[in-house]
């Protein structure tokens, strides 16, 4: 009896030990990944293709037999770009689906709200679909970002045009939200390095449809370069309005408007618009090799063009896969983050951007690119931008 | 069906109609209190969110359901509550137990200010005025610089009540349940006082109310004060649930969601606010849980949630304007008087002549 009791306690202790060693979201035959994104709200143009790109890579990996014998499972939740919904989504992903990691979740306020929960549950936040600084700062073993942050994008943009041609009266047209604020901050910081100041700043709300007053202010200030610290629709409106009013400075923006809808707006009116981006948007026509295969496979699968966000989604899952392969059969959060920190030579399969992490560096993409609209299409004008 | 004899006027203002009703609600309370014992953290958090929304819903119910003033700006007061609480606790170091009532007061005063200005407005004009309050509040919070943290927002300090850290789901759940129960009792109590009756009189006919000696402007403002105070408390608790407040959280969408909540739940009843909160908070959860069984082509397409949400709303507005609670009452009545149920039983008997001139 005594022996039996001892054996029982031992068995119980072993069982407890096993369950403790078991990492959330990792079982013998699968690894569960979670993402919350916007599938039906104002940023569905970002969320829907992103989700499709992620799914496509997951399906490819599973068709190849998974990672070390484990299949990947991706659970997607819709937030409609609302923080309360994001909280609910994260709650479900963390506690019901028990995800191993959160990958490519969309939206700055949503990610900021969910982050403490992730940290508490010891679940890594991987490559959120936002370039906010807080996605890496303060440094945490669980936080990894793909993008260079908004301020860095605008600092690099300022530096590039300062060194290539120069400017006298730099101006900023800023959207009234947190993204706009941090983008504009980048311009201010870099100008300070050159001992310059922003000559004029205008602010507009996301819902504004008439940009005449903003553009008139910029025109009267005699701006020769305008940094568009904004989103998609307002960028189009400001450029189109400026063309109409005969105002023709250099327009530079960040990664957010990097999509076909912007390049193609106004039948060629967007030609000459520059943007600085941490990733490269690859078109079928200009793609080569592996990258062309991926873009074509996507088009065959979903019968639509592979949007830049879909390309990012694909890359995010591919990076997770690369790190998981390094980890080997025994998957834990510590081993996984160590593998990510050791990832120094990843080249994204679509745009060819170099990605490297380190123990002190949790921000992936190394240098930025400069894209330009030509003939209603985005083309890469320069690579390797930095400040 | 039980028929109660009225033996005294006190009977009309009792909290519960009879012992059976008291036992039912006691049972519900016991069930809610024991939830941490048999529900896991995920469901507790969801339920806590239901309670918070129900508090905001009760506030809106006082305003729209009882005093008849439609508000498209309720999220503004939720936002003021969330920010006031975060700033009071985070910047001025006020303890939770002091910060929460102070927050209710701040939000309530903001509400009263809006209410006083709007007290002569009705219908569409009031809707537009409150809508603008929602928009202006969002812009003000965004442009508030360091004080409100701008568009970037503020991190919310951890909830500690009298030295106890509320760091587990079941703890925050119980806090929210307590506030929710308190809010229901307050509302219930309001309805059996002079001010509650005055609010309903104002709703049904302002002219008649004034003729009976009700100070219409005062009670309309009072309704705004109470409603905003409830919203403020809900905002404070939401801030704790979100860990982070940004102006975008409390935009127009949220105002409309709150209004839908009371309409779907059933306008003019306490139950309606609670039913509506369950509907608004749990529908997305239920949808994402049943998505697992749906074919991928439907489940993974964007806008699925919005479609179902919209469809349900449409069905309610077309077929059951009395909301979830109205439907429940009818079903309940059907069985209790079976087979004597008649549709007419729920038609309003008294209608007041309403013209623009005589409001």
From TrEMBL, chain A:
Q: Which positions carry the signal peptide feature in this UniProt record?
A: 1-21
SUPFAM superfamilies hit by this protein: Periplasmic binding protein-like I (SSF53822)
The protein's UniProt keywords, in alphabetical order, are: Amino-acid transport, Signal, Transport
Gene Ontology terms describing biological process:
amino acid transport
- Leucine-binding protein domain sequence ranges: 31-377
Q: What CDD domains does this protein map onto?
A: PBP1_ABC_ligand_binding-like (cd06343)
* Gene3D superfamilies noted in UniProt: 3.40.50.2300
* Family membership noted in the UniProt record: Belongs to the leucine-binding protein family.
Name of the featured protein: Leucine-binding protein domain-containing protein
Q: Which organism is it from?
A: Seohaeicola zhoushanensis
From TrEMBL, chain B:
What's the protein here called?
Branched-chain amino acid ABC transporter permease
From which domain of life does this come?
Answer: Bacteria
Q: Which GO terms describe its cellular component?
A: plasma membrane
GO molecular function, a single term = branched-chain amino acid transmembrane transporter activity
Question: How does this protein sit in the membrane?
Answer: Multi-pass membrane protein
Keywords in UniProt for this one?
Cell membrane, Membrane, Transmembrane, Transmembrane helix
What's the short name of a Pfam family annotated to this entry?
Answer: BPD_transp_2
Q: Which PANTHER family does this one have?
A: HIGH-AFFINITY BRANCHED-CHAIN AMINO ACID TRANSPORT SYSTEM PERMEASE, HIGH-AFFINITY BRANCHED-CHAIN AMINO ACID TRANSPORT SYSTEM PERMEASE PROTEIN LIVM
Give the residue spans that cross the bilayer. Answer: 21-39, 51-84, 96-117, 173-191, 222-246, 258-281, 293-319
Major subcellular site: membrane
Q: What subcellular locations does the record give? A: Cell membrane
């Amino acid at each position: 009896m005594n022996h039996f009791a001892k054996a029982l306690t031992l068995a119980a202790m072993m069982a407890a030990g096993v369950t403790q060693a078991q990492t959330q979201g990792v079982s013998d035959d699968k690894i569960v990944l979670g993402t919350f994104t916007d599938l039906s709200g104002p940023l569905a143009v970002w969320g829907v293709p992103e989700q499709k790109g992620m799914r496509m890579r997951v399906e490819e990996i599973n068709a190849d037999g998974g990672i070390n014998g484990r299949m990947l499972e991706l659970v997607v939740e819709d937030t409609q770009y609302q923080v309360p919904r994001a909280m609910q989504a994260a709650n479900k992903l963390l506690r019901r689906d028990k995800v191993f990691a959160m990958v490519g979740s969309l939206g700055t306020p949503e990610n900021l709200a969910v982050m403490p929960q992730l940290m508490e549950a010891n679940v890594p936040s991987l490559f959120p679909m936002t370039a906010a600084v807080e996605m890496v700062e303060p440094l945490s073993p669980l936080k990894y970002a793909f993008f260079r942050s908004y301020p860095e994008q605008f600092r690099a943009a300022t530096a590039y045009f300062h060194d290539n041609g120069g400017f006298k009266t730099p101006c900023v047209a800023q959207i009234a939200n947190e993204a706009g604020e941090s983008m504009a901050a980048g311009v201010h910081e870099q100008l300070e390095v050159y001992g310059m100041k922003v000559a004029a700043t205008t602010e507009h709300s996301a819902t504004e449809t008439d940009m005449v007053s903003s553009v008139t202010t910029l025109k009267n200030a005699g701006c020769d370069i305008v940094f568009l610290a904004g989103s998609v629709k307002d960028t189009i409106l400001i450029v189109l309005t400026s063309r109409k009013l005969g105002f023709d400075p250099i327009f530079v923006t960040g990664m957010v408007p990097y999509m076909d809808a912007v390049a193609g707006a106004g039948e060629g009116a967007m030609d000459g618009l520059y943007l600085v981006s941490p990733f490269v948007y690859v078109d079928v026509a200009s793609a080569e090799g592996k990258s062309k295969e991926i873009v074509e496979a996507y088009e065959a699968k979903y019968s639509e063009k592979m949007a830049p966000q879909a390309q990012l989604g694909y890359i995010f899952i591919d990076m997770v896969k690369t790190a998981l392969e390094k980890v080997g059969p025994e998957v834990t959060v510590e081993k996984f983050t160590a593998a990510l920190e050791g990832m120094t030579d990843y080249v994204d399969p679509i745009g060819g951007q170099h990605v490297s992490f380190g123990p002190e560096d949790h921000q992936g993409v190394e240098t930025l690119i400069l894209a330009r609209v030509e003939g209603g299409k985005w083309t890469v004008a320069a690579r390797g931008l930095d400040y | 069906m039980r028929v109660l004899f009225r033996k005294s006027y006190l009977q009309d203002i009792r909290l519960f109609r009879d012992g059976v009703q008291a036992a039912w609600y006691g049972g519900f309370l016991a069930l809610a209190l024991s939830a941490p014992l048999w529900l896991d953290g995920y469901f507790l958090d969801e339920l806590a969110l239901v309670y918070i929304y129900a508090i905001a819903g009760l506030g809106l119910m006082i305003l729209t359901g009882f005093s008849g003033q439609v508000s498209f700006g309720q999220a503004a007061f939720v936002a003021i509550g969330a920010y006031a609480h975060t700033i009071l606790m985070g910047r001025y170091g006020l303890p939770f137990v002091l910060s929460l009532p102070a927050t209710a007061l701040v939000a309530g005063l903001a509400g009263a200010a809006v209410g006083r200005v709007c007290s002569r407005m009705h219908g569409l004009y009031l809707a537009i005025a409150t809508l603008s309050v929602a928009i202006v509040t969002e812009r003000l919070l965004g442009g508030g610089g360091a004080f409100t943290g701008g568009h970037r927002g503020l991190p919310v300090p951890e909830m500690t009540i009298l030295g106890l850290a509320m760091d587990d789901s079941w703890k925050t759940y119980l806090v929210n349940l307590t506030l929710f129960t308190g809010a229901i009792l307050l509302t219930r109590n309001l309805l059996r006082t002079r001010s509650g009756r005055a609010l309903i009189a104002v709703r049904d006919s302002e002219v008649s109310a004034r003729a009976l000696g009700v100070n219409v402007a005062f009670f309309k403002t009072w309704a705004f004060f109470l409603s905003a105070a409830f919203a403020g408390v809900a905002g404070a608790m939401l801030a704790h649930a979100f860990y982070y407040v940004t102006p975008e959280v409390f935009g127009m969408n949220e105002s409309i969601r709150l209004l839908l909540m009371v309409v779907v739940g059933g306008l003019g009843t306490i139950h309606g606010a609670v039913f509506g909160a369950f509907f608004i908070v749990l529908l997305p959860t239920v949808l994402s849980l049943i998505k697992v069984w749906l074919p991928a082509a439907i489940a993974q397409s964007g806008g699925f949630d919005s479609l179902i949400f919209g469809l349900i709303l449409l069905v309610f507005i077309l077929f059951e304007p009395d909301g979830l609670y109205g439907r429940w009452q009818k079903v309940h009545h059907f069985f209790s008087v079976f087979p004597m149920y008649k549709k007419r039983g729920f038609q309003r008997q008294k209608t007041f002549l309403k013209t623009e001139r005589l409001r």
